[in-house]
Design goal:
Helix content: 55-70%
Radius of gyration: 14 Å
Number of helices: 6
Distance between the termini: 6 Å
Low-confidence stretches: none
Strand content: 5-15%
Shape: globular
Order of helices and strands: EHHHHHHE
Mean pLDDT: 90
Structural class: mainly alpha
Length: about 110
């Protein structure tokens, strides 16, 4: 089974991924998922360059997300600071435009 999500508005795409990122952080903090799970869901290096280019705050948040496991293992005293920074970057990336209808389509195949 596959879930295909299509978003045809850049602002909404940025917001959607930022909301997803905040959710991933929440799950990590509650130990509902592992760092590997977080990497598989959203924090994988393959998308960082493109997002840093078109959505700098979101791209920086995703970049920091790829480093969470290393921070947790090597400098655990910085983990709260890094997750707070990711949250802040994501919060700045959530921008819904009231004047535009947002288009998201979901399809299960």
């Amino acid at each position: 089974m596959k879930l295909i999500i299509e978003i045809d508005n850049d602002t909404y795409l940025q917001s959607y991924l930022s909301i997803l990122s905040i959710g991933v952080l929440e799950c990590l903090e509650k130990k509902l998922i592992s760092y590997d799970d977080a990497m598989n869901i959203l924090y994988f290096p393959g998308i960082i360059d493109k997002f840093e280019e078109i959505f700098p705050d979101l791209g920086n948040a995703l970049h920091l997300g790829t480093e969470l496991e290393d921070v947790a293992k090597l400098i655990p005293e910085k983990l709260v600071q890094v997750t707070s920074e990711i949250r802040e970057l994501n919060s700045r990336s959530i921008k819904f435009e009231a004047s535009k209808k947002q288009h998201v389509s979901h399809k299960i195949v």
